[in-house]
Structure formats: C-alpha cells, structure tokens
Amino acid sequence: MRVLFRLLITGIYIFLMAPFLFVAISSVGDSAMLSFPPRSLTFQWYLQISPSLLDALTVSLSAALTTMIISSGLGIWVALAIARGRGALARILQLLSIAPLSVPHLALGIALYQAVLLLWDFSGVTLAGTFRGLVLGHSVIALPFVVRGVLAGHAQVNASVEEAALSLGASPMQAFRNVTLPLIRSGLVSGAFLAFLASFDDVPVALFMGGGEDSTTFPLQVLASLEFSLKPDIMAISTLIVVVSVVIMVVLDYLFGLERFLHGQSAD
Amino acid sequence: MRRPRSTETARFPIDLKWNRWAVPGLVLLLVGFVGPLLLLAVYSVFHDGASGQVVGAASLANYAAILSDPFYLKVLRDTVLLGLVVTAACALLGYPLAYFLARTNSRWRPVLMFLMITPLLISSVIRNIGWIPILGDHGALNTLLLTIGITGSPIALMNNFTGVVIALVHALLPYMTLLLMTVIRSISVDIEDAAKNLGASPWRSFWRVVFPLSRRGLAAGCALVFTITVSSYTTPTILGGGRVLVMATFIAQQIQTVMHYAFGSAFAIVLFLVAVGLSTLASRWLERSEV
User: Fold this and answer.
1) CATH class of this structure's domain A51-228
2) CA-based, 20 to 30 A from B206: which of A170, B11, B155, B168?
3) Cβ-Cβ contacts under 8 Å, B114 against chain A
4) Is the distance from CB of A218 to CB of A59 less than 8 angstroms?
C-alpha cells in the first residue's frame, strides 16, 4: 500500500515535469520532425533561433514590464481605497477590481477588440494591433493580482504603528511612506510578479489586441509558427525561457516563499 | 474577500483621501473592462450584416440559435464534457498529491513543493508545446508503446480531445493540489490518529474522517479547474490541432475568421455564464450535500 502510494506520487511528479523535460530534449535533438528518441545531439538550434521569435520575446518582455508598472502603480491605490477609503466608491472598487479574474479572458479580449474598433470608427484612434492597445488589455487582466496582493499585505498593517508614527511628529505622508508602505511591500511584490506573468503568459487578449509589428507577443508568434510546423528553434528558445524562469522562481522562493504567491492565479 | 466595515476603516489614523488616489485605477476598469463588456452585451442582441457590420433590431435570436441549433449545442456539450473530465482527473490525481504534501515529514518537502508550483509559473504556450514531442505520432509515448508491442501502429494522442485533456490536467493539477493541500493541512493529524486508535483502518480513517473535512477545499478546487477549463483557448488550439472545437476556439473563429461580431458576442456571454454559473452551482452543491 505504502509502496503503491509512493509509486503514484512519483508518477504524478514525472507527469508534472514531462513537458519541460521534453522541451529541453527536443531542443538538442537532430530531427526537425521532433521524433523521439533523437538520433544525435546538437546545439545548432540554439544558434539558429529565428529573429521573429527573438523580436516576439522582446515584445512580450516589454509588454509584461509596462503592464507590471501600470497595474502596480494604479492597483496599489485601488487596494488602499478598498481597505481604508470610504463611501460608495470604495465599495464599487471592491466589486470591480477583482472581477476581471472571473470573466473568461477570451470574452474580455473580444469585448476590448470591439470597443477599440468602435473607437476607431468615431475618432480614428487605432488601438487594435498596437503596443498601447495590448498593454491596455493586459493591465486590465493584471490589476486584480496587484489589488489582491496589496490587500493581503495590508491585512498585516496595524493601526497602532501608524498612530505611533503620527504622535511622534511624522506628517501623514511621511508616516505612510516610512511605516505603512514597507509593511505592504511583500504583498505588492507578489502582486506585481503575478501581474508580469499575467501579461507574459496571455494568449486570448493578445489574440485580439496584439498581432501588429510591435505587438506580436512570444505566445502569438509560437501559435503562428505552429500552423506550419514546429521547428526545434522554438524548443531552444523555450528551453532558455524555462531555465531563466526557474532561476527567477528559485530566487523568489528563497526571498519570499513561492507558496504565498499563488492564491487562485488563473490563466490559459 | 474581506469586507471592510466603515467602523473598521475609520481606525487607520493616516488619511490621505484614499478614494481620490484610486481614480486612475477606476478609470482603467471603466474604460478597459466595464465599457467593453457592456458593448459585448449590447452587440449580442443584434444581428450580423455583411462584412462585420452589426445591424438589425434587438432580439434574443442569437441566444435562441445557440440553444437550439444541434451544431452549437454540440460545441456547448463538448466544452462542458471537457470541463467535467478534466475536473474529475485533477481531483483524482490532486488528492493523493495534496495529501502527501500536507502530511509528509520528508526533508525534500520544500523541493517537492517547488516542483509542484513552478509549472504554474512557466508560460502556458511552452507547457503546451512540450507535449508535442511526447504525444505526437513519432513522439516518446508512441515510440514506447510500439517498442513494448502494446500497439502495432501509433495511437492518435494529440490533435484530438485526448491531447487537450492531458495538457489541461497537467496545467491545472497544481491549482487543485494547492487548494486541497491547504485544507488537508488544517485537519489535525490527531483526529486521524484517534480514528486509527479506535480501530479504523488507514483507508477507513481517511474516507470517514479526512475526506469529509476536506470537502470545502475539493469544492473550491473543482470550481476553479472547471471554470478555467471551459474558458481555455490556448490548450485546445495547440493540442487540438484545429480539430477540437470548444466554446473558446469556436468564438475566436466567429470573430476573427467570419467576423460575426454579434453572434460571437452572444456566444462569449454564454461562455461566461457557463464558466461562472455552472462552477458556482457545483461548488454550492458540493459544500451543502454533506457535513
């Protein structure tokens, strides 16, 4: 019984790791057909990564970074208004700011696409297929992560430390910056990290808001190449992305603990 | 979500007029979320004219078509079925894994936790293409099956529902495991030991004690997995190879390829209702039906 259970757990772990191992294996195989097992090993695909994939990765990284900055910059204040603001606005924000998580992102992508087409009809402003449009969409799906992260961090803020700061002569702004903000920092970091991922990982919103020269993200480029055939250089660049991601996770795990990061993150 | 009461909010002595600072965020939500979704709802009651025009008088004709045409009903049914299969598989695999991670004293636990979580944080497109060298006709699994002699010719493991199910279970298993693990850890080992001391077999003590107490986590996990599955686009696209039509892939086709904006909008609203509605109902039922 015990042995069987161990075997089952081992099997599940092999299942969880399998696709990443095989991305790496295929990236050094000689066959352009991705057959298994590869006949010989080669690193040639790493030298032949297509420029369109590298461009797309650059777009993805800059979109994710911009999204992270915008959604963190706006989201922290939304969260604080929810936690300590008053009246109808705070309550409306509370309902609205988490809502993008429960709407299928494909529906949101379509809705945004139709909205920006309508905007174009009326004003001639183009957002579909531009970097600005892509970041707009990504900021909407990323905002809930920041708000939730900051709210979780804020739950640890105690009113008495703020009172202490104020009674010792700090101005409200000083007290906020030097006392409150450091307390919610880890929540903000985890929210910002998930915001980055929400953008980097996204397909359904980019499908409608991206696709232009400066807005074809890495996932879109991979999807486009799949329509012809899957070349091993995609596996090579993917292996590099996996390695870099894992290194980042190890660092974050060491600094903050990854487990806390993921409460109900969702993307596909 | 915690619901701060007004008496509670008044306790924080620093008052920087928080509402005012939140206005830009509110504007983003109104412009990028509320407005577009309202437009989607409005479009959904009109008709598709030539070349992407939305015309006609308002009616529920699009919704009536979705709920009566056999073809659309099949797309709906396949999507819900996919959701149920993936949810069941995640529950079956996630439970033992969560139980193991919650109860193990192994010094490898941090590493095992890390290995369980990281797949979640790696780009979903990469996760999906990693299955191609495994599931393809010349892939690892078919090579293995052919070598052992279980099958004489390659089995189609991708470009069909099988591949989509495998990849979705892989993608969503960590969510289920995380939610279950949190609940199982909160159940004291002492209760299990008490049941065993009173003569229950390990299996019986699990089934009669731990399992009932973990239903809430199971319900939450199932609801989450079901919601993500029925609205998933990336996995059915990559591992379905254009041959798997679920709601998300069908809707994207309607908008991108045939420019049926009105009909696509109606279908997107149905998708939203299925994703959120069914999973809410299911988790209510799971939570209530026992305990």
Assistant:
1) mainly alpha
2) B168
3) 249-250, 253, 258
4) yes
